[in-house]
Amino acid sequence: MPDDKRSQDSATRDQSLQGQQDQEQQAERTDFLREIVQQDLASGRVKSVVTRFPPEPNGYLHIGHAKSICLNFGIAKQFGGRCNLRMDDTNPTKEDVEYVDSITTDVKWLIDGWADDLLTLKPAGATPGVSKTSAGEDDFYLPGLLPADTAGQAVEPFYASDYFEPLYNYALELIRKGKAFVCDHTAEEVDAMRGSTDTPGTESHYRGRSVEENLDLFERMRAGEFPDGARTLRAKIDMSAPNIWLRDPIMYRIRHASHHHTGDTWCIYPMYDFAHGLSDYVEGITHSICTLEFEVHRPLYDWFLDALDLARVHPIQREFARLNVSYTIMSKRRLLRLVQEGKVRGWDDPRMPTISGMRRRGYPAEAIRAFCDRIGVAKRENTVELGLLEYFVRDDLNKRAPRAMAVLRPLKVVIDNYPDGQTEEFEAVNNPEDPSAGTRKVPFSKVVYIEQDDFREVPPPKYHRLSPGVEVRLRAAYLITCTGVVKNPATGEVVEVHATYDPATRGGDAPDGRKVKSTIHWVSAAHALSTEVRLYDVLFTVESPDNVPEGGDFMDTLNPESIEVLADCKLEPSLAAAAPGARYQFERLGYFCADPEDSKPGAPVFNRTVTLKDTWAKIEKKGAS
Ligand code: ATP
Ligand code: MG
């Protein structure tokens, strides 16, 4: 049994999780968002469902985004709809094409084989076309393409910045309707005049400008006549509205900055609240699902849509709670700091909670999706245990990862009665969970490596692995008995173990039926592949590093031991052929993945994806302290 040291507790927990999972796979999911979608379809308010995933390309996607992706694509899948990928790129200064590319790659990877047929993209270079509404107004619409319809066409994600022209036209329309005005107050003045929840705001001195003057000034804002911050375009709503977001919010600001997608075409940029709902409308989104912090913005989302005479069905915004995971952070700003300050090796460092980091570490997309499915959606924020994510990774890899033998901290064992120069090959099962995975040959010879941890010169109580006079099984090979040790005379450290083998136990079983208490893994020294293996631990030492109190810095809670690089591990020779990204279970140690970046042909480097649950290490630690 490969997991012979799993604790009873976690085994029970795993079984009950497995039970829940099976149930969930059978039942259609229901939650408050799906109920809304279902009602909208039943009532005929919408004919089909179009969702969207709208990241701002100012960082890499993380596990929180994975939740949003699974939700948006999951709803589309359940209700026969589709889901647009849209770069929410209205802020020129923090965004970059590097992020656009990584986001696109990560979304495709996460939904591959599950909902990739529902990912709507658009013809490369396409921007919305104009049509007339029933009221005779201009309407802008940018239909997307499903993969099945793209037939050789170049496609790309949607970009909110592709709607700058229609958004500008919508803004002109609001000015003409007397629902927007150009304001000359500074940003600080606007802030101060907004008031608070208890006090009403103060109206802008420029609120009474005529439509003609507003049109003229706004056109000149666009033409670049004014410096940054000189003027804004604001919605004319209600300065005494109880909801602060409705107090004449800013729609446009002047920013003479180059944009990653539109270059220098624009020097005015729309604000999120104005841009988002109308971008949803332009794309024909039916359900705009976002995180709870936008709930207070919802009246404004609706106000912009209602203030314009829009011919098509309006999208509706609904909110769910963000995902937080223990011992990690979700803020892109903070993740960026880790990258910029060199605390990690990049956005895709296997310790990062990013999708690219998890992929590089060996997390299967299926496991991340199963995790997202399990946590579901709620209306209240909470923190999910990192252990739950790891459970799904382990559970998935247990089914599919071929087994191999690897020794991370090698200790040499010389089998004195084994013939010099002899090599035998043993047949080892690739995956006991999957008979179709077959078997492979593992070479054996006189000198083998075992884990340092699998030998104790003076065994503590209940230690059943190798120690002087004790017989153990070398997995799939022979029973061996320890006969003595060689020590470094200076340090007293055991550098070599001597043993004898019983030739009658070939394959690992004694013909007389005698039992041994332990089976350990090994690698033949003459055949071993020597390589680097990287072990990872949590990046932070506290459960909620995102919540470090004022005055503290989340960087102070970084785990100084989050990575351990083992330079000279001994692996069974079949692993030389490991393809970059290939995943294995190293028997008794955990799941490992050949690093996709650093592996060379014939010379893979491995990342530990997740451990098996070795409770022994904990018991030993407790005993020592
Ligand atoms: P930050 O505030 O750190 O910049 P963000 O949440 O604004 O990040 P976006 O790129 O705007 O990042 O997010 C894209 C989508 O993913 C949004 O719909 C957002 O609501 C959702 N999302 C972001 N973080 C989480 C999270 N932790 N859990 C669930 N959904 C999330
Ligand atoms: Mg955002």
List keywords for this structure.
single chain, alpha/beta, Glutamyl-tRNA Synthetase, domain 3, Ribosomal Protein L25, Chain P, seven-stranded mixed beta sheet, 28% helix, disordered N terminus, binds adenosine-5'-triphosphate, binds magnesium ion
Structural class: alpha/beta
**H/I helix tally:** 15
Q: Would you state the CATH class of the domain at 403-528? A: Mainly Beta
Poorly predicted spans: 1-15, 22-26
From the N-terminal CA to the C-terminal CA, the straight-line distance is 30 Å
For the record, the CATH architecture of the domain at 403-528 stands as Beta Barrel
Q: What fold name goes in the CATH topology slot of the domain at 403-528?
A: Ribosomal Protein L25, Chain P
Radius of gyration: 31 Å
Question: In one word, what is the shape?
Answer: elongated
Spatially, the strands of the biggest sheet line up as 17-30-31-32-28-29-18
Task: State mean pLDDT (0 to 100 scale).
Answer: 92
- Heterogens: adenosine-5'-triphosphate, magnesium ion
Full CATH superfamily name of the domain at 403-528: Ribosomal Protein L25, Chain P
The amount of helix comes to 25-40%
Please state roughly what percent of the residues sit in beta strands, choosing from under 5%, 5-15%, 15-25%, 25-35%, 35-45% or over 45%.
Answer: 15-25%
The major β-sheet equals: 7 strands, mixed
Beta strand count:
32
Q: What is the quaternary state of this protein?
A: single chain
